[in-house]
Amino acid sequence: MTTDVRLPAVAGMFYPGSATALEDEVDKLLRAVTHDTAAAAEAPKAIIVPHAGYIYSGPIAASVYSLLTPAAERIRRVVLLGPTHRIGVNGLALPSVAYFSTPLGRVEIDREAAATLVDLPQVVIADPPHAQEHSLEVQLPFLQRVLKDFRLLPLAVGHASTDAVAEVLERLWGGPETLIVVSSDLSHYLPYAAACEIDSHTAARIVAFDPSISHDEACGATPLNGLLLAARRHHLGSHLVDLRNSGDTAGDRSRVVGYGGFTFAEYRSEESRHEH
């Protein structure tokens, strides 16, 4: 087995570069969450979180990650999917390295889970799509602070069909020990009012399990649609946790990026089936 480590590419840019500052920043974002985490029907099976710099999207990501606390002891595998921004790839790329690292330490790659995908033609082993990719990296410090002990299966998603992504997720679905994380922002560089309108419509389609979201509506539409299809097949319940944009957090309202936080969980009871 390789002992190579994928080093952080955006530490000091998208999030603080020192361990102490990063730990403080993530913990501050999590403490600032105001919703009642105890109100969650079940710990999520899957989540959708944004991936911008923490000053912009950190509060929205934290609102979702805070809901994982009740399941922190049992989540042992995180399947993390995000779009490629720098290096294109046909299919879904697994890295060859043994660890991903952040200033908070190393996270071991789940090679056993990766081995279950080797026969799928849409899965390739390729490190270049991961090397500078921020969509996956920025999720790791949140996971490191919220979860206790987990292994990671990171997939950089390029050109792939919704069915192809859903097939990969089906292989990795597992039980309560497995969390699926899809990294995606929503609309990009629209005026504030237009972004609010479009993102609200997109959010409604996401919670309705509509697997036809476009890349103009969500940059991570490919993994997002695959998750929606798989979650619908597994009869999960959906919930919009947070919907804001950079104009709400730290940006100019003339040109904003949209951020949404969503959870997908097993229904706790027949009654809860009608809440969404």
**What amount of the residues lies in strands?**
15-25%
Helix content: 25-40%
CATH architecture: 3-Layer(aba) Sandwich
Approximate shape: globular
Q: Work out the number of β strands.
A: 12
The CATH H-level homologous superfamily: LigB-like
Spans of at least 5 consecutive residues with low confidence: 269-276
Number of domains: 1
Write down the overall mean pLDDT.
93
In CATH, the topology is named Protocatechuate 4,5-dioxygenase, Chain B
Largest sheet: 9 strands, mixed
CATH class bucket: Alpha Beta
Return the structural class: alpha/beta
What's the gyration radius in Å? 17 Å
> What count of helical segments does DSSP give?
10
Structural features, described:
With 276 residues, this protein is of the alpha/beta class. It has a single domain, classed as 3-Layer(aba) Sandwich (Protocatechuate 4,5-dioxygenase, Chain B), CATH 3.40.830.10. It has ten helices and twelve strands. It has helices at residues 19-31, 54-65, 111-115, 128-131, 134-137, 140-146, 162-172, 192-207, 221-233, 246-249; strands spanning 5-6, 46-49, 77-83, 92-94, 99-102, 105-108, 123-125, 151-157, 178-183, 188-190, 237-245, 256-265. Strands 2, 3, 4, 7, 8, 9, 10, 11 and 12 form a nine-stranded mixed sheet that branches. Strands 1-5-6 form a three-stranded mixed sheet. Strand 5 (99-102) and strand 6 (105-108) form a beta hairpin. The chain starts with a strand and ends in an 11-residue tail after the last strand. The model is unreliable at 269-276 (pLDDT under 50).
